[in-house]
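Help needed: design a sequence for this.
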């Protein structure tokens, strides 16, 4: 007999198989009308002769969809559960587990039963449980992100092991970013991490703005896929992919979310946010809508000063404003067809840079000063429109995603200090060539980016997830046009350009992909996949200005490229319903590109106009285990990645920066995610990872100049991954008569990368012995909250110990004494309130 404390966790609703039970592959023989979900599941069990296993609480208050006869068992159950926030998995041919998807639940996680909830992901382009997918994936649900105060990619990367996210502290308002997974970095060449909103890729080609990243309000969840994803996500997912999964509208369920926050940053300004999201059926079972709008103002904490007098000109200048809006409809004209058109808009505005002068600042007191002559604002916005169509066929499901992506960004970069070093030989200031003597020395760079992209993916997948053979196949098309414009001039002579460039790139990709899995037994299965394609790129660049001494006024290039085949193989062993083991071999790559035009005259042949693709092979072994009656979830993986023909950014003897292919590297490491319910009141989680990525051979030019050294860390220091990273969090709750109170603590730790680095070699083309990687860091966050009915109130302190490390410390040139850096947001205290129902 079950104990009274475990009964709510293990209460099952089951239909015992009859001796004459029909095979699960047979279609449903009779209709099931829309009705309370428990009754609908009972009817489904009778008709299908399947055993349905689930916790009874998850069906309470939910209504099923109507199901017509003739569809397969899997298609019928999918339709029946649509819009309920529930999903299912065949444990064997006769047993189906039904569970609650964390990403669709608006309740706080502490109100769930005292056991870990199942996590459903769409990383394989079909809904599957996280614990049965043979790859390393971290998932942040909406509740996870709300509890941790995660609003953007920086927060996602901070709590996810194996992910490195940083920005150039030397360049403008901090818009040139680098995102790497497992050490496969993107600060050189094109992107190595795929960025997706649902099924739409939104990463850009290599440019001065870096990629754009979605804000997380009203996101169902964020999925971080570690390791190459070449089969399903194609080029530029060489190190992995990050998917921002939106909440789709429902045709049967109404939901609302309101959120507001107010905060104060130590020695900084005030911040606030307000947002609302909601969805409801317009025509029950046929038409539904979901919409959201959200605005957030992040307080500034870096002062812009007069570099000659030290007077504060603009206190807390680096404040930012973020806006996100979305509208989506769901149209279900019949039980087999679902059409979801949606449009999203996002804008991120930075008033000024978060970077500061190290020597002018005092970190011990939190006094952070930026001495640039000019304010450096930026705005980066995009519109994403898509139509997703899913059609149930006999034995298969067809999906089409048509998307249009339009991104526009502009920024002002104060190039005064760099111009003094590289072009003017200084301004006469005894402090050095990077230091101006008056505001008349100012050299602004005006930057704009416009990216327009059309994409289409059409795929078909087997419908019966319990079949011995499951498969997926599709085609993908992308057409992207991108314009990068730069105008650099002396402020005293605005009509006389110093550097004027207008770069126009157009690329087209078409590829085909497929993936299949064969189950030898109910425990052992083999998966295999492949992607092939073709890529065409055209560039047309114009340049001018007195500093462009080596650039032709006009240059054009065209390149046709057969994309390298990207296979994937995996072998899985399901020891039982709680223990899953796998091994996987996969390939990923990113395409080559053009270096544009050199700005300074150099000997012929010294400046390559193009660079080639690079690629990785990854070998991974992993395990996913549920232990102690679902109270402990443990996911672990070990990997070995070989990176070949690496795209490396270097400077030639004349000061032109270009990308070339240099050498090979090896990345090894592991990651472990653990989450446990220690008692009915105490939950703890831990994530720890190791990344060690090094060049495996020395690459040098004919004159002996070294590009990279064997055994050194990959990545231009200081932009190198922390070898160790980890997050530990705990939450304790206790019930009150009117609700639940909880306290939470979270500590995020990154280690220092000791090198060695190629930049420390005097023979290296980028020799700079003063460069160091970021120091070891830790950030402590505290939470105190009350949850009652739909209302949730949380008091929080982020960076409670007020750690202010020097991050990405760098200068304009190897000998410059002007050092830039940025740091964590100082201690911030606030209160957030939300209501979801």
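Sure. Designed sequence:
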């Amino acid at each position: 007999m079950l104990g009274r404390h475990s009964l709510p966790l293990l209460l099952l609703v089951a239909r015992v198989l009859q001796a004459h039970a029909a095979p699960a592959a047979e279609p449903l023989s009779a209709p099931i009308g829309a009705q309370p979900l428990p009754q609908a599941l009972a009817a489904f069990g009778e008709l299908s002769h399947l055993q349905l296993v689930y916790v009874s609480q998850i069906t309470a208050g939910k209504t099923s969809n109507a199901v017509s006869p003739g569809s397969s068992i899997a298609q019928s159950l999918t339709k029946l559960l649509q819009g309920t926030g529930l999903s299912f998995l065949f444990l064997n041919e006769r047993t189906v587990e039904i569970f609650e998807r964390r990403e669709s639940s608006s309740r706080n996680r502490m109100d769930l039963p005292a056991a870990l909830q199942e996590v459903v992901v769409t990383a394989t382009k079909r809904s599957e449980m996280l614990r049965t997918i043979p790859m390393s994936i971290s998932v942040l649900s909406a509740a996870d992100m709300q509890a941790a105060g995660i609003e953007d990619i920086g927060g996602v990367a901070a709590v996810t092991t194996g992910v490195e996210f940083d920005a150039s502290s030397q360049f403008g308002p901090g818009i040139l970013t680098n995102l790497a997974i497992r050490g496969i970095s993107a600060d050189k060449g094109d992107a190595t991490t795929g960025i997706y909103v649902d099924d739409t890729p939104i990463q850009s080609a290599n440019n001065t703005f870096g990629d754009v990243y979605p804000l997380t309000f009203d996101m169902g969840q964020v999925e971080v896929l570690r390791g190459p994803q070449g089969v399903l996500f194609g080029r530029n997912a060489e190190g992995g992919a990050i998917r921002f999964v939106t909440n789709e509208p429902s045709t049967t369920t109404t939901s609302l979310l309101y959120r507001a926050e107010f905060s104060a940053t130590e020695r900084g300004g005030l911040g606030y946010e307000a947002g609302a999201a909601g969805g409801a059926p317009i025509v029950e079972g046929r038409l539904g809508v979901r919409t959201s709008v959200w605005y957030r103002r992040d307080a500034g904490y870096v002062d812009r000063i007069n570099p000659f007098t030290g007077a504060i000109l603009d206190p807390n200048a680096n404040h930012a404003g973020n806006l996100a809006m979305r509208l989506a409809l769901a149209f279900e004209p019949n039980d087999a067809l679902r059409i979801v058109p949606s449009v999203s808009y996002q804008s991120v505005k930075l008033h000024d840079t978060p970077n500061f002068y190290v020597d002018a600042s005092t970190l011990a007191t939190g006094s952070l000063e930026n001495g640039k002559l000019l304010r450096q604002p930026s705005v980066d916005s995009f519109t994403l429109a898509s139509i997703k169509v899913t059609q149930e066929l006999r034995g298969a499901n067809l999906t089409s995603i048509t998307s249009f992506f339009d991104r526009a960004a502009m920024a002002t970069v104060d190039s005064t200090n760099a111009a003094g070093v590289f072009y003017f030989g200084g301004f006469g200031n005894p402090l050095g060539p990077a230091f101006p003597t008056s505001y008349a020395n100012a050299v602004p760079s005006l930057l704009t980016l416009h990216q327009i992209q059309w994409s289409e993916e059409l795929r078909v997948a087997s419908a019966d997830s319990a079949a011995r053979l499951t498969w997926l196949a599709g085609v993908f098309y992308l057409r992207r046009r991108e314009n990068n414009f730069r105008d650099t001039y002396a402020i005293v002579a605005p009509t006389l350009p110093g550097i004027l460039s207008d770069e126009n790139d157009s690329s087209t990709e078409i590829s085909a992909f497929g993936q299949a899995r064969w189950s030898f037994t109910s425990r052992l299965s083999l998966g295999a996949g492949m992607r092939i394609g073709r890529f065409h790129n055209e560039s047309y660049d114009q340049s001018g200005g007195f500093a462009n001494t080596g650039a032709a006024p006009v240059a054009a290039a065209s390149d046709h490229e057969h994309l390298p085949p990207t296979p994937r193989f995996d072998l899985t062993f399901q020891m039982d319903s709680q223990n899953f083991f796998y091994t996987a071999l996969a390939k990923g790559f990113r395409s080559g590109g053009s270096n544009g035009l050199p700005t300074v005259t150099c000997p012929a042949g010294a400046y390559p106009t193009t660079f080639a693709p690079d690629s990785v092979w990854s070998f991974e072994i992993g395990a996913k285990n549920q232990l102690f009656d679902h109270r402990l979830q443990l996911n672990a993986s070990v990997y070995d990645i070989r990176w070949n023909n690496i795209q490396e950014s270097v400077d030639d003897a004349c000061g032109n920066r270009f990308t070339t292919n240099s050498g090979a590297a090896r990345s090894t490491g592991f990651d472990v995610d653990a989450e446990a319910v220690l008692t009915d009141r105490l939950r703890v989680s831990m994530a720890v990872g190791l990344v060690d990525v090094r060049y495996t051979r020395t690459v040098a030019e004919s004159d002996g100049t070294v590009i990279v050294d064997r055994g050194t860390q990959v990545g231009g220091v200081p932009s190198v991954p922390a070898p160790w990273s980890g997050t530990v969090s705990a939450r304790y709750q206790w019930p009150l008569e009117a609700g639940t109170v909880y306290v939470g603590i979270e500590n995020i730790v990154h280690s220092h990368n000791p090198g060695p680095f190629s930049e420390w070699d005097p023979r290296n083309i980028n020799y700079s012995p003063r460069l160091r990687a970021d120091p070891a860091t830790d950030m402590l966050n505290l939470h105190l909250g009350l949850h009652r009915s739909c209302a949730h109130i949380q008091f929080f302190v982020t960076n409670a110990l007020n750690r202010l490390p020097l991050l990405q410390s760098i200068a304009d040139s190897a000998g410059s004494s002007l050092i830039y850096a940025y740091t964590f947001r100082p201690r911030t205290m606030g209160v957030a309130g939300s209501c979801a129902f």
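The longest strand covers residues 497-519.
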